[in-house]
Amino acid sequence: MFYNLTKRISKSIFNISNKGKITESNIQSTLRNIRTALLEADVALKVVKKFILDVKNDSIGKTFNNSFTPGQEFIKIVKKQLIYTMGSIKKNDHILNMSTEPPAVFLLVGAQGMGKTTTVGKLALFIKKEKKKKVLVVSTDIYRPAAIEQLEMLSKQALVDFFPCHKKTDSVLIAKEALKYAKTNFYDVLIIDTVGIMYSNIHMMNLIQSISNKVNPIEILLVIDAMVGQDAINMIEHFNTYIPISGIILTKIDGDARGGIALSIKYSTGKIIKLVGNGEKIYDIKYFEPKKIAERILGMENVLSVIQEIENKIDRSSIKKIKNTFYNKTEFNLYDFLIQLKQMNKIGSIENILERLPNNKIIPNDVKSRINDKLLKKFISIINSMTKKERMFPNIIKGSRKRRIALGSGFKVQDINSMLKQFENIKRLVKSVKKNGISNMIKNISNFFPNKLF
Ligand SMILES: Nc1nc2c(ncn2[C@@H]2O[C@H](COP(=O)(O)OP(=O)(O)OP(=O)(O)O)[C@@H](O)[C@H]2O)c(=O)[nH]1
């Protein structure tokens, strides 16, 4: 989900990230790119228009505080608007409501084949695990052959209780009896599955309404397949005229590369997406979290997860040393280079990490292929074969020293030369970071890895 949107938005956002001032002209092309990306992702036109207008109004002519650059402030504004478009800035909007005398009744409704029954099973497991609640499930779908058996099987997978109703012929009665049973047996939650409805079928709509009236659900969750696209809006409006929908469960997001519907629902209908189904397995369900999604769309999620992963793998004292190298006045030497190489080696596949960074397109493929893991190991062995003095003062490494190091490390003199060249490049890079900051360094990264090096 959101694959293309993420790719396009994170790229255009990156271009503005180090702008010193926000003016109509310098955000114009970024906003144009965002607009196109949103439309291509199948976000409804009126939502896109409102989104762009709000971002524009929020950013132009604003005085920002000094802790962020205007470019970064702009990203914060886009992030806030994305969150607002999908949910609200308030925390926990998506949380399921259970504040009622038990059992809390959840009624799941929806059109045919949206993934309702599967979702009842998933939701039962989710509530049991997340909320540690005693859950009962029941199917009132006496119309689709095997719908009841399907839920019974899912309840076994989720290890929750199933209310048997195989021989019954009245959906409303089944719901009523299940509720009575749930009350007398102290269940915390009762989840009711219903028949899939062609939403023009008034008779079936009335049936769902009758079930709802009998069991007084605290949540009426409309299950929608993400792939129905903008038709979801009509579906929500139509169902809502019969029963008050309290939230949406968007299923099959694993099959929907565009994701525009997730950005259109709240603005178009006022309804919040509470959960998403992201696979066919019983545990493939999670809360819909606008903040996390916004971070992902802006390309921040990967950066955060990569940083987290790197931090978990490298030790604190080395991070400190590396930081000191960047910010101290001391000259970068081969000791520092060795520490960096060892830490990079610990992190794992460098290609994999570069690939996950949102702006990895800025690093050309030939550069990526030249920063590989084999090379790291080679450089580490070469530096290990040097004396203390050589590591401190690499300038003294000339002909005879090079031959000795080559012999000791098992490589050729050319390899020693290319390692030293690489070291000089990194040294220049460190100097550049000190002078111009990280983002400039990334933009110019290809200059630090000239083609002929390896
Ligand atoms: N990939 C994927 N498939 C899903 C997801 N949720 C449900 N499905 C599949 O969608 C199909 C239909 O699911 P059901 O649960 O039978 O749908 P339903 O809404 O109960 O169907 P009706 O009772 O006919 O309305 C099944 O093959 C499910 O495995 C999901 O999140 N991702």
From TrEMBL:
Ribonucleoprotein found in the keyword field = yes
GO BP of this protein: SRP-dependent cotranslational protein targeting to membrane
Q: Could you tell me the EC number(s) of this protein? A: 3.6.5.4
Task: Tell me where it resides.
Answer: Cytoplasm
Q: Which UniProt keywords apply?
A: Cytoplasm, GTP-binding, Hydrolase, Nucleotide-binding, Ribonucleoprotein, RNA-binding, Signal recognition particle
Q: Where is the Signal recognition particle SRP54 helical bundle domain?
A: 1-86
Q: Where is the SRP54-type proteins GTP-binding domain?
A: 103-299
Task: Extract one GO cellular component term from the record.
Answer: signal recognition particle
Residues of the AAA+ ATPase domain: 102-250
Q: Which reaction does it catalyse?
A: GTP + H2O = GDP + phosphate + H(+)
GO terms of molecular function: 7S RNA binding; GTP binding; GTPase activity
Specify where it is mainly localized. Answer: cytoplasm
Coiled-coil stretches are none
Pfam families on file: SRP54, SRP54_N, SRP_SPB
Similarity comment? Belongs to the GTP-binding SRP family. SRP54 subfamily.
Per its UniProt record, what PANTHER family does this chain match? SIGNAL RECOGNITION PARTICLE 54K PROTEIN SRP54, SIGNAL RECOGNITION PARTICLE SUBUNIT SRP54
**Which protein, by its recorded name, is this?**
signal-recognition-particle GTPase
Species name: Buchnera aphidicola
